[in-house]
Amino acid sequence: PVYFVDAPDFFLAHELAHQWWGQAVGWNNYHEQWLSEGFAQYFASLYARHAQGDDVFRGIMRQMRDWAMQQSDQGPVYLGYRLGHIQGDKRIFRALVYNKGAMVLHMLHRLLGDEVFFRGVRRFYTDRQYQKAGTEDLRLAFEQVSSVSLTRFFDRYIHSTGLPELGFTYRLETAPEEESALVVKLRFEQRTDELYDVPVTVTLHYRTGDSQNVVVSVTERVTEVRVPLAGPLSRVDVNRDFEALARIVDQN
Ligand SMILES: [Zn+2]
Questions:
Q1: Near ion ligand 1, which residues have CB within 5 Å?
Q2: In what order do the strands lie in the sheet with 165-174?
Q3: What's the gap in Å between 24 CA and the centre of ligand 1?
Q4: For the chain, domain boundaries
Q5: Angle between helices 34-52 and 135-146 (to 10 degrees)
Q6: Which CATH number describes the domain made up of 10-157?
């Protein structure tokens, strides 16, 4: 399917993952092929993280994100094999059905958290084992375990072509209850007409050399979170792990 220099077992892991995704759980029709290829791609990435660590995982995520973002306006994931068909360009199909599909699962993972995400995966698998499945079945499985409405999430990323565009600012504040304690306010504003759900990592760098990652679930027109600080900051980075499928302008 795709080769990552740093992860020679990726191909094998992807093909093995098809025993679950694609074989045990099939796909209803060509629209739903991402349930097979996106899952195989994502589970191969998780295997790479397990076997080779975070750096290799991040390299894979970054590459998949770049491919997905470059081709996203070519059509929705839901178009399946028809993506790139007219141009005769298979890269468009792979970028969206394989890599955007995997990134969508990764964003869902980060929005719901480890425990709920894997409960949703198991629910989907046991509900649809030895049957065919569609995006709606996946949405229902995750909604049942999370009690979160995911209609907008799948509409935006699977049925549409757009991606989030965010402006990011931060400001230091004094916590009201304790005057000496510093707090940083992280602020994201969505600039597209339609709103998205997108988890974004903000990295706080302290003057001591330590750093801290904060994952902000951006879901509103304006999302603000306040984070207590462990000391004076030297720098703040946004989306340095490239795990948000979004265009982000750092306005600081
Ligand atoms: Zn495959």
A1: 1, 37, 40
A2: 222-228, 182-190, 165-174, 247-250
A3: 14
A4: 10-157, 165-250
A5: 50
A6: 1.10.390.10
| Backbone φ, ψ for residue 194 (5° rounding) | -85, 145
Whether the predicted interface score ipTM is above 0.85: yes
128 C-alpha vs ligand 1 centroid, how far in Å?
Answer: 19
Tens digits of residue pLDDT in 12-57:
999 999 999 999 999 999 899 999 999 999 999 999 999 999 999 9
CATH 2.60.40.1840 is held by the domain 165-250: yes
Measured from the Cβ of residue 113, the count of other Cβ atoms closer than 10 Å reads: 14
> In whole angstroms, what separates CA 19 from the centre of its chain?
23
Tokens at 112, concatenated: 């719901």
Residues 6+ apart with CB under 8 A from 130: 24
